[in-house]
Hints:
CATH architecture of the largest domain: 3-Layer(aba) Sandwich
Distance between the termini: 60 Å
Number of strands: 12
CATH class of the largest domain: Alpha Beta
CATH superfamily of the largest domain: Periplasmic binding protein-like II
Strand order of the largest sheet: 3-10-4-11-12
Structural class: alpha/beta
Strand content: 15-25%
Number of domains: 2
Largest sheet: 5 strands, mixed
Helix content: 40-55%
Shape: globular
Number of helices: 13
CATH topology of the largest domain: D-Maltodextrin-Binding Protein, domain 2
Amino acid sequence: MKVKGLILALLLEASAMLSPVSVSAAEPIKVRFGVDSHVFSTQYWVAKEKGFFEKRGIAPEISVYSYGIDTINAALLDQVDFAEGYDFAILSRLSGGDLKIISYIQHIKAEANQVVARDGITRPEELAGKKIGVQKATQNEYVVHKYLARFGLEGKVTKVGFTSNPEIFAAFDRGDIQATIFNSTFLEKALKIKGVKVINTQADIPHAGKGFALVTGKFHNAHPEVTRKVLEALDESTRFILSNPKEAADIIFKTVKIPRDVLLDDLQEKNILLDIHFTQDEYRQLRDIGEYSVKNNLIRGGYNLDDHILLEPLRSVLPQKVSVVQGKK
């Protein structure tokens, strides 16, 4: 009996010694997110502020960049693990590294993206010989190309590239450019400039870009379970935003300083459409934009779209949100 008691005591002591190891193993995993400086970052900030990442064992580190394309570049440079971007921006970088598209996350409806012009311009035809501001390397570059082609203006309008919305607004305010495309906060500011008119929307092209979440292949291969947890957190965040738009607007004002009333109006008017899913419509849009962009020398080819679509994580946690017959299964 004394021997059994000694063995039991030794086992209990060993268990106590091992317990710190098990606690350490449960420590949160640091995950680096790249987000843009505007409404595209909403789901990520709300997930962080409401603890949706934390309760899934994720310690989020969020870095802010001007546009989604900048977060993609950061992912390719191994500065972040997860990025976000609109269709054209993503496609322009697929040949540059191992990026995986894991879900649609949001987009701004076409009507909310408005072509604003100044200096007496009231019709697209009057843009001939003028300058239009373009967000370099973003989906806006694709939109402007389609817009000019739609109205027979390709080659007749000078495209001036910028690296941030504040830069574009400042140039527009000074009169250095005569037109650009704005939504949300910057649209509101632009319309306060004397003589500025809305002459079109993206619905007139027609085109509505779609935004997606991405993960690096390197990170996913090392932590596939984290990719699934990130999608769960973003889905919970999305549902929270739709049910609590006022609190969501407060969070975004605190984090990226977008005026509460502007974002709240966009959410309530459904100018911003949010969800976590991937359907045939998303696959078709990515494919069609890629083919058009390569054909028109907007981006280089050299990638296989299916190799960059990763749906297993989304299908495993939200199977009802995946309905696609083409693309990586």
